[in-house]
């Protein structure tokens, strides 16, 4: 529609410009405009839906974590696979933990669920969010956190009974694997089973940008995440944006923000045991990991609206490997005790790296074994993806009573009546149905 308006303007102002030339010129201008304004975020017609799913992750996921998740994760004494005490926080607080520790761990649990919601955004039924969020925070994620963070976990570096994995245990200080990979791998299977959003790829298979509605909100959210990451693992964002600039030839604010988040996800594993210069290396490589995975996703027609799988899953895995390469003897001894293996490239041998590789394999395998059947079952029961009509109109209108705010989406090839496009905040009884 925008190209047609452009062509009309050219034809009206220049008598010697024919229709074909005008359409070609305007097509090129439109392509440039899409490159300059492309944003990786949810479109305006689904704003209320994505906000609701975020609230749902915190509420329903929090309830599930309270009833079951915390017990599975930290309910010791227990075996190396799963915790077995403190269901519903019974007999809690305990000598080993209090409510502040529970709330801290709850935040990690809902973060994993939130990552997954980004991968399946704009096309998923509300009931599916409710089911997967409760299952992920109440069972899938807690088992992983028990393995690597509980003092009883079989791969934990703080294990108090039995031998440490490769004499080291896995060092995943704040969750590159435990949180980010869990959410990213779960999102991978959800997005693969649902398939791409309508219009994401054209009939010839070429990628079509579905632009998010607010770069400003993306930047604001990135700053909030940046600030929040200082609570446990700062230091990886100094050069990670450069590769984005080199690839596309111009600075794109959304790409820069995603580059920052890639570095954040990667440094989370080793932030307590690496030098600042190594954190810079981690962030720089993480940006290229994200770029490579995004190119692969487009090639295989994988649609993740927020690049959550590539960013959290892929860069989280890189962060786990990075720790096995760059962890220093001094910091490992300070945090986990002397005599432990440390980074391969720092002269510490390959034992820590081997433990880190084990984490990547078991996290990927566990999440696949649990979340793949769940999403497949939801799809078979017609509980996963919304109808084509709802997806076209946007879930704010069809599922949530109206748009979050007035907007005009030029990328929406499925034109809606003007009253819905510009002036509708809440539906009116007098309005004609679509």
Automatic annotation (TrEMBL):
Pfam families per record: Ammonium_transp
Main location, first listed in the record: membrane
Transmembrane segment boundaries: 101-120, 127-149, 169-193, 214-232, 277-298, 352-378
Coiled coil region boundaries: none
Domain Ammonium transporter AmtB-like: 36-245
One example GO MF annotation: ammonium channel activity
Record bears the keyword Membrane: yes
Record membrane topology: Multi-pass membrane protein
Compartmental location: Membrane
GO cellular component, one term: plasma membrane
Residues of the signal peptide: none
Record keywords: Ammonia transport, Membrane, Transmembrane, Transmembrane helix, Transport
GO annotation terms (biological process): ammonium homeostasis
Similarity remark: Belongs to the ammonia transporter channel (TC 1.A.11.2) family.
Protein's recorded name: Ammonium transporter AmtB-like domain-containing protein
Lineage: Eukaryota, Viridiplantae, Streptophyta, Embryophyta, Tracheophyta
